[in-house]
Design goal:
By secondary structure, the protein is of the alpha+beta class. It contains 28 helices and 15 strands. β4 and β5 form a beta hairpin. α20 packs antiparallel against α21. The longest helix is centred in the N-terminal third of the chain and has 68 residues. InterPro entries: CdaR_GGDEF, Homeodomain-like_sf, HTH_AraC, HTH_AraC-typ_CS, Tscrpt_reg_AraC-type_HTH.
């Protein structure tokens, strides 16, 4: 009977399947037996290390409790104070502290204090001379050893000759810690209680465990000696002189199965190989219909997408389809990654609010957790335009990859969890919080926990900054935002990090900037309105070509350096300075103002657009102003009557304190009509005579208000005003405040 295609395929593959699987099952059970033995050994090792760790934890707790009592317990401290020897309450309080100490440490059997200066011993129930104390020999030996060891080997202990011995392990601490000049505290851990704890921790049907002392003597075990099998593995304590020994006590199920020999393995390999050959032959014979189907699909795809170009070999067709599928997968993954990055950016830029359901649907490794504080950080490449000119786009992407990987390593070194993304070619944004283990080990909460987070984040950021500067040939500035308590508030931390990064302009680049370090400096910085007033004065002095304008410029930057200002604030201040200069030049002549706009003014605007730090402005802006001031001086000297105007200006500077100084008086001194002098003065300096005189007097008045305690009326007289009311009105017109207010602010 003719079989169907389904039946032929089924009976072709079924024998191959049965034979191959039977061989694999045989080999599988042999391998399982070996694996069971290896797992038993590994389980034994895990149990031994776990038991040792638990014992060490309890003994370390005893040691830490004792050290804490020595450091903070005033009753114990008073017991060793020679000045308080006669007070009977001192000994009673110290004994009470010993009893409380024993209650807090279940493994401890007894404890006592030994005082050096009067050779007396205080236990929880006795206060006697050291010579009558049955354990005095141990005290003498411990004092002779000094700081060599804290935990001793198992020994027999009793307080008086009338008591019976008990086996203990003693912890002794010299007082003061490290010297023993005042005495010592001894805590005795009961070996019997230690055996009970060991038995409760080490119960196992497969593993035999022993607790041994430094000499190899057995202190406790979890089963009879006769049940032990195999070689012992030793695990030494990091706390005291004891060791846990482990061995396999009972073989696991299947442990008696024979070990696979080379012959059996070879037989199994040959069977599998024959099955593969058989399978390949059958598949080749039945592949022809499938090949025809692939040809038709490929031809159809080619006609639809490539205009009917002929296909190639079957191998080429399969590669073509495989590439198409791979391309679809890559596009899907890239689309998911793009959506994740876009969501992350929108959350930080407050376009949308983060919620747990959407966050969990993303492919981030940074899980949603509202129980721990976190913060946002910005890592920005310094002087990025120069960086972009120096490196190609491919190199820049490589550097981004390197920086991201290095940041991940450093964040993990600080026991932190992180998520980062490049928001721009020059800016990487990352979230950082402490991991579960680090949070638990810190034992902190509230503000201390947040401070701990900022310290660890700043440490990782500083390590990243130093590594990049030392290995990659460029620098970065890192800004840390203020911590937030939940995932829904991460946009606030990012906004704060952006704000902190703006202060790079005054604090400088290639450093780590934190909110906690910047906030107090910003609160105490000079007020911006005072700096604007100084900028306006510089603009006026520059227009008048006064020699002191460059010194005023340096004083302005010194005042800026006393505080911390964002880049936008510095840009506004410098823009106002340039505006004051340009306005003054326009009053001189349109020709001078247009020349400034096209030459040094345009270069100054470019500098304001591209600068990153205050240092760049301080180095590059003065040379531009100095160059153009020389050009203005040349233009003025080329005009007629330049010397006349300069003499008039000098006469004003020397006689501004004269209340009778006027345009008429100056013109008489220069033998020129006052109308002609007024016109020439306006042409040369772009300012009327009376305005210049008022500004000169107010400038000197402001100096006197800042530097002297003279009353306002006396200051007015010193600058040529007979009536204080006129002086105050003129001063307020120029400075926007009264002389008294100006003195208070400066």
């Amino acid at each position: 009977m003719k079989r169907s295609g389904f039946a032929r395929l089924l009976f072709s593959y079924l024998p191959v399947f049965i034979v191959t699987v039977a061989a694999l099952f045989f080999l599988f059970f042999i391998v399982i037996a070996n694996q069971a033995r290896e797992e038993a050994a590994a389980s034994s090792q895990r149990l031994a290390t776990q038991v040792l760790h638990m014992l060490d934890s309890q003994m370390r707790f005893i040691e830490q409790t004792v050290v804490r009592e020595l450091l903070i317990n005033l009753d114990v401290t008073a017991f060793f104070d020679a000045a308080q020897t006669e007070d009977p309450m001192v000994g009673y309080s110290a004994a009470s502290s010993l009893n409380s100490l024993l209650v807090a440490m279940p493994l401890a059997e007894s404890a006592y204090l030994y005082r050096v200066y009067d050779q007396r011993v205080l236990s929880a129930s006795r206060f006697l001379e050291a010579a009558l104390f049955a354990d005095y020999e141990f005290i003498a030996l411990r004092l002779e050893q000094g700081t060599k060891s804290d935990w001793g080997s198992p020994r027999m202990y009793r307080e008086t000759e009338l008591e019976s011995f008990s086996q203990v392990i003693s912890l002794s601490k010299l007082i003061p810690l490290g010297s023993g000049d005042q005495g010592m505290l001894v805590v005795n851990v009961s070996v019997s209680r230690l055996r009970d704890v060991f038995a409760s921790l080490s119960g196992s049907e497969m593993t035999y465990l022993e607790l041994r002392d430094a000499q190899g003597r057995v202190l406790a075990n979890n089963g009879g000696e006769a049940a032990r099998r195999g070689r012992d593995d030793l695990y030494r304590s990091d706390v005291g002189p004891w060791t846990v020994a482990a061995a396999i006590k009972k073989q696991p199920r299947g442990g008696q199965m024979p070990v696979a020999t080379a012959g059996w393995i070879a037989t199994g390999a040959v069977i599998v190989l024959l099955g593969l050959i058989w399978l390949l032959a059958i598949v080749r014979r039945h592949y022809r219909p499938v090949q025809s189907l692939y040809n038709r699909v490929f031809q159809y795809t080619t006609d639809r997408l490539e205009g009917g170009r002929a296909g190639g070999s079957p191998e080429g067709e399969l590669n073509y389809i495989a590439r198409a599928i791979d391309s679809l997968l890559v596009d899907a993954q890239a689309g998911q990654a793009y959506r994740d990055r876009h969501y992350f950016r929108e959350v930080l830029e407050q376009v949308r609010v983060a919620n747990e359901a959407e966050w969990r649907s993303l492919s981030f490794g940074f899980r949603w957790d509202d129980a721990r504080p976190l913060l946002a950080m910005i890592v920005e490449i310094d002087r990025f335009p120069s960086f972009a000119e120096q490196f190609s786009e491919r190199d820049r992407r490589l550097y981004q990859y390197i920086v991201g990987n290095v940041w991940g390593e450093l964040a993990r070194d600080e026991q932190g969890e992180y998520l980062f993304e490049w928001f721009a070619p020059e800016r990487m944004v990352t979230l950082f919080r402490l991991g579960d283990a680090e949070e638990a080990s810190s034992g902190q909460s509230g503000q201390r926990d947040a401070n701990h987070l900022e310290q660890r984040a700043a440490a990782a950021a500083e390590a990243l900054r130093a590594w990049i500067g030392g290995h990659l040939g460029f620098t970065v500035t890192v800004a840390l935002g203020q911590h937030v308590g939940s995932m829904t508030e991460i946009a606030l931390s990012y906004e704060d990090a952006v704000h902190v990064l703006d202060y790079r302009s005054t604090l400088g680049s290639d450093r780590v900037l934190t909110h906690s370090a910047i906030a107090p400096v910003v609160a105490n910085r000079p007020e911006l309105h005072a700096l604007l007033q100084m900028a306006g004065d510089i603009g006026y002095a520059y227009r008048m070509l006064e020699r002191g304008w460059s010194q005023q410029f340096e004083e302005l930057f010194d005042r800026i350096g006393e505080g911390v200002y964002a880049r936008a604030e510095l840009a506004s201040l410098m823009d106002y300075l340039l505006y004051a200069i340009q306005r003054g030049l326009h009053e001189i002549s349109r020709e001078v103002a247009e020349r400034w706009r096209q030459e040094e003014g345009a270069e100054s605007q470019r500098l304001l657009r591209d600068f990153e730090t205050l240092e760049e402005l301080q180095m590059q802006l003065p040379p531009l102003l100095m160059t153009f001031s020389s050009k203005v001086a040349t233009i003025r000297q080329s005009r007629g009557h330049h010397d006349v105007v300069q003499h008039a200006k000098a006469f004003i500077d020397d006689n501004y304190a004269n209340p009778d100084l006027s345009l008429m008086l100056v013109s008489d001194q220069l033998n020129i009509s006052y109308t002609q002098l007024s016109r020439l003065f306006k042409e040369q300096h772009g300012e009327k005579f009376v305005d210049y005189l008022a500004r000169r007097r107010m400038s000197k008045a402001a100096e006197l208000l800042r530097q002297t305690p003279d009353p306002v009326q006396e200051v007015a007289t010193q600058v040529g005003y007979m009536h204080p009311f006129s002086f105050i009105r003129t001063f307020k017109k120029l400075y926007g405040m009264t002389p008294g207010e100006y003195r208070d602010r400066n």
